[in-house]
Structure formats: C-alpha cells, structure tokens
Amino acid sequence: MTAAALARSIPDRPPSPASLWAATAPAAPRRPAASGELQAEVVVVGGGYSGLSTAHHLAERGVEALVLEANEVGWGASGRNGGVVSGKFRLGFAEMERLHGLETARRMHAIGREAVEAVEALIARYGIAAARLQANGNLRCAHNARQLGLLAAEADWLAGRLGDRSYELLPAGTIAEETGSAGFVGGLLGHHAATLHPLGYARGLAAGLERRGVRIREATPALRVRRDGAGLLVETPEAAIRAGKVVLATNAYSDLTPASDRLRRSLVPFRSAIIATAPLPPALDAGLLARERSYSETRRMMRWFRKVEGRIVFGGRGAFGKTDSEAAFEGLRRAMVGLFPELADVRVAYRWSGLVGMTLDKLPHVGRLEAGPFEGRLAFAAGFNGAGVALSSLIGRYLAAFLCGETPEVALLDAARLRPIPCPALREPAVRLTAGLYQFLDFIGR
Ligand SMILES: Cc1cc2nc3c(=O)[nH]c(=O)nc-3n(C[C@H](O)[C@H](O)[C@H](O)COP(=O)(O)OP(=O)(O)OC[C@H]3O[C@@H](n4cnc5c(N)ncnc54)[C@H](O)[C@@H]3O)c2cc1C
C-alpha cells in the first residue's frame, strides 16, 4: 500500500476526551504537522510520557530527537490517567521472587523506586508547576478480612525480604476517619507514592523539551517505518523522515497504524474509565479523603479514588467494551455511592476513558530489536498494564541507553520476554468475558 493510501485509511483525528484534566490544564500550543523531507538522529513515535521521557534522556546525551504524535501531546493514556504515581507492578514482588528468585524481585523493587524518583526529577528539571505533584502516599483499602490479611503478609514480606519498611498497616477506624467511608476493614499505607495532574505533567514536559530545542510535531501519525540505505525511513501523511533510529512509544494506542504492528500483537488494550464529581459542598469536602492521597480497593476489578480540588475522582476498569457507554459510567457512579453514600445527590461533572495496554505476564517491556532488518535501530517500550505514570517516565532513560548501544539491567522488563497474544482476534471478547467474571466474583464477595 502506498503512504497516501495508508494515510487515507487512518480515521480522522479523534478529539481529546472532555476530562477534568483537559478542563483544568494550562492551554497548550497547536504544534505543526511534520511536512516535507526531514532528518533526525532518532524519531520518537508517540507523544505520551514514554516518548517524551525518551526525548529528554536522548537530549541529555546530546542526541537529537524528533517526536511525532498522531494527535496532540498527552492525547493517549498520559493525558487521561488517574494521576497516581506509584512504583508498583501488576505482578507482586513476592510472586516475582517465587517465579524468578529474590535478586530479580529486588531489582524490580529498585526499578519501582527509581520510577517514582524519575517523575520527581523530570518535574523539577522542567519546573512543571502544573503537574501539581503531591507526595502524599497511597492507601490500599481492604474490603474484607482475607484481603487485609494479604496486605499484612505483603508488608511483612517487603520488610523481611527486601528491607522495605515504608508500609504501614492501618486499622479500620483510621481508614474510616481518613476516607470518610465505612466500607473497609483496614488498609496498607505506602509512603513512596504521589499524585499529579496527568495532562499538566505531559504538557509541561513537552514545553520544557521544546525550550531546549527538541522538535515535536502533532497531527503526525507515523504510517510506516522501513529500512532505507544505512538508516530508516519514517513515512507520515505529509513527510518522509530519514532517521538513524526509531523508538515506538505508542503503548495501548498501537492499533493506529502499521508502524507499531509489532507492539499491537503483544498487547491487549483494556478500557479504563474515570468520573469526577462537581465540587463538593464544604461540609462534605471536609469529611471525605481529608489527606488527599490516592486510594484503591482490593477487589479484583480494582476501583481507585482521590480528591482533586474538592471533587471526588473515581475510576476503574470493567467489561467496558470498545467505546464508552452510559452503563459503564453509571456502574462507576454506583460503586462510588456504594462507598460514599453521601455522594448520591452530587452531580457527576466529567466522565472519560482511555486504553491501558495489558501484557500476558502483567509487566511492561523495553528494549531494542536485535535481529532482522531493524537490528539495533528500533527500540520500544509498552505494556504498562494500567500502572505506567511512573514507569513510563523512567522508561525513556532505558530507551535512550538501548538506542546508544548500551544494555541497561531491566530484569523482568526485558523486551525478549514480551510474548505475542495467542488468537489476537479473540483478545477483546476474551478481555470482556474475564472482566465480567471478575465483576461477578467481586459481587458475590469471593
Ligand atoms: C483511564 C486511565 C487511567 C490510568 N490511571 C493510571 C494511574 O492512576 N496511575 C498509573 O501509574 N497509570 C495509570 N494509567 C496508565 C498510564 O496512563 C499509562 O501507562 C502511561 O500514560 C503510558 O504512557 P505512554 O506514553 O506509553 O502511552 P500514551 O500516553 O498512551 O501515548 C501513546 C501516544 O502514541 C500516539 N500514537 C499512536 N500511534 C501513533 C503513530 N503511528 N504515530 C504517532 N503517534 C502515535 C497516541 O496518539 C498517543 O498519544 C491509566 C491509564 C488510563 C487509560
């Protein structure tokens, strides 16, 4: 297919969701699309945290990058997420030890810590006040005694095996006082976690990179990447870009064009949705989530919540399907009112959703292609499994190292571990079925 025909097959640029973040982030400039014959040492495909952090780390090494974003900076998960900054992976550290040994679990734990620090460092480096970073911890709230026991065992394991004593088990009364909900039997407070304004952070990163001369082009989908003489050629609707190397940072949005086909085959895109209430009346505001941390439940279909400028922001995943639905948002509202009955009459002011990229082993992966026509010239990172604010901010450091021919110690994040999804045609129905089963098990209290 020619590049022109490919360009025609791409759906019109979809609008960004009308989220709380879009309504409250500082305005961003419209950046021009790439056009004509261009050159770059490295082309970064995707203008989310992964792509932007890669451009940052390349710039630190004196390597010149050109970032291509199909829509606008932060249009993907990076501008839509819950803003929970945490170094946890979907696969628990104890499970990592069971499967891969203590040293691997230890390295993964260190990577998690580095990831939270990477967010702090980027925000400090570019002075991103609009990221509104608050290092206020994350509280996991147990919905039954069995889950509280598991949280306690996890804290013991982290202290005993990894020497991490930063977790604190809290009794039901403290949780009720802090959250304003009587729905929990106790919880585990993790101190190495923060919250931020996701779109303010993404836009601030892009602005900071531009100040130091990094080129960012919006409305520019990379249609195809191919070998061209000694380097690579990236085709877009209006440009042909000669590049020494290319990074794919398209994560759950890798379905857009054939350029990121090799990621699409290994990811299951899963819809995650968020609602935000209108500002709470002062009496209610004072009684709910007073410490303004991030909070999550221990149910299989985990719901999480936080307070942002007097509004409750409540999110979760479910059997949501390809597009947004009234039923999915109403399900979230009901779950919120189940935990906070006082919110029954408070208006939901914003509702939006986005895709998270799930992998078979529940872990993100990063690396470069070592074989084939792209040998050593193409690097990628993907599969944050819905926990990527911190990790994708760190991943650029590894991507830049891989592109410069180094082999950083990424333990279980090694790209060679990324497995293709069997029967890709069945991936969406299978996800919905599993999510439906989990919701049912949660409902009957199993
Ligand atoms: C609703 C929701 C809530 C979440 N909440 C949290 C949370 O609270 N905490 C947490 O840690 N994680 C959370 N996540 C996950 C987190 O947001 C992601 O892991 C992270 O943002 C991934 O960043 P990224 O840069 O890899 O991908 P994205 O931000 O998705 O960026 C990919 C970009 O690539 C662009 N693109 C795709 N194809 C092309 C192409 N061919 N050419 C050019 N550009 C292209 C897309 O337009 C998109 O902007 C959430 C995700 C969602 C959707």
Automatic annotation (TrEMBL):
Keyword line: Oxidoreductase
Domain of life: Bacteria
Cellular component GO terms, alphabetical: cytoplasm
Oxidoreductase in keyword set: yes
Entries under InterPro entries matching the protein: FAD-dep_OxRdtase, FAD/NAD-bd_sf
FAD dependent oxidoreductase domain ranges (all copies): 42-401
SUPFAM superfamilies for this protein: FAD/NAD(P)-binding domain
Region (Disordered): 1-24
Molecular function per GO: oxidoreductase activity
Designated name of the protein: Glycine/D-amino acid oxidase
Organism: Tistlia consotensis USBA 355
